[in-house]
Every structure is written in C-alpha cells, then in structure tokens.
Design brief:
This protein is of the alpha+beta class. The chain has a domain of 88 residues: Roll (Ubiquitin-like (UB roll)), CATH 3.10.20. It contains two helices and seven strands. A seven-stranded mixed beta sheet has the order 4-5-3-2-1-7-6. Strand 6 and strand 7 form a beta hairpin.
Length: 144
Amino acid sequence: MRRGAPAARRWAPALALAVSLGALAQPAEDQRAFLELIVNDAPQEATLVRLRGTDGIADALVAIQDLERAGLRGLRGAREQHEGREYVSLQSLSPEVQFKVDSQALALHVTARPELLQDTQLDLRALQRPADMVFRTDTSAFFN
C-alpha cells in the first residue's frame, strides 16, 4: 500500500491540470435574451437569442424559424438544437450576414445580402379607387 502513494502524488498535479484544462475547454453557458430582431433596418418581432462570448458578444444564435419569418431564406450556417428548436450561428453566416447587438435598445441588428431575402411583390392593380371619386373632363384656366 505504501508503494502506490508516491505514484499517486506524482500523477496528482497532472490529473488536476487535465481536469482544469477540460473545464476551460467547455463552452460557457449561453446568455439568453429576448431582443427585437431588425433585418436590414426593418423591425420584426422580438425573438429569443442565445448570446455567446467571454469578452463581449462573439456570436448570436437565432432560431431558423424566426429568421425565416423575418424574410431570410437559404441560410447555411452552423446549427445547434436547443429546447426542441433549431438555431443557427450568425457568426457562421459571415460574410453574407452581419450582426450587431444593441444592448441599450435590446435589439439584434442583422444585415443580410439581397440574395438571402425573400422576394416581395406589390400588385398595384388590386387597389380600388374610392367609391365617391369623380373623374372630370371639364377644362378650365385661370388668368391673373
């Protein structure tokens, strides 16, 4: 029994170092926040965002469903599952997508290239003129 004690003392510092390095290698807990989502300067609904970073915010994870509801399509970034929802890392979408967290306004500003945005069509033929609108054919002039 005495023989094993010196060997344990020799390995104890190495074991302690390995355990501490393993703890440092694990990612820190995400900070979750409800932030107003703003895509290309167009305000959207508030959404749950998972923020990461030790010195400031290095990354933000947003649910794919929330980004698609905001009009973004074809996102191919690093994905993770959290609480039954699929999230994408905004940092992994660079350079097509840039983001900035405004902690004062509690907003997440996302700037995306046009290729990632949903097409918008505006049909002006569907507009109805007011019922009481009158088209006049009288001509008139005014001299001073």
